[in-house]
């Protein structure tokens, strides 16, 4: 494909056909200009109304202040894929001597929060919010104390699962005279260790006041 610049093409004498072609090109160019202008106007109007772009969904290349609603919906982290095969384990029991210690270990130092922007504004991370809710539900089962935060966690996890809507199919297999779903096969997952490293690095570098007092409720 040849490329031309405006300065490399000489003006030629116009025949009637070329005149029509030039007219068509002119109208096409004008159309694109108007469309571009209309897009600019639309962006201006919607941005003034707070509807364009949607809050927290701008490009990762945009610099955010992390003040008010000026922050991204997702932290710009390029995550690798890893394989995970779900399996039953003796660890992470509901109750027992080691249960509290093992479940407490699933959160990174600092509780799994990020402090972003010039003012080090705190943000939670969905991964650690979900894990914290599992810990809270475990304690509720162990102690029988189903408080309001437990109810919030139940609904938070329910809605998080619906939001993910994972379509992975799981085969049904016979077991003990009945049937169950076999979940023990490899899955393609996001590398969650990268999120842990992000949170731990942010916590180690942060000087925000009250970092250690942050908890998910």
UniProtKB/TrEMBL annotation:
The keyword Membrane applies. Keywords: Membrane, Transmembrane, Transmembrane helix. One of its GO terms (biological process) is mycotoxin biosynthetic process. Pathway: Mycotoxin biosynthesis. The keyword Iron does not apply. The chain crosses the membrane at residues 20-46. It holds the Pfam family UstYa. Belongs to the ustYa family. This is Oxidase ustYa. It comes from Trametes cubensis.
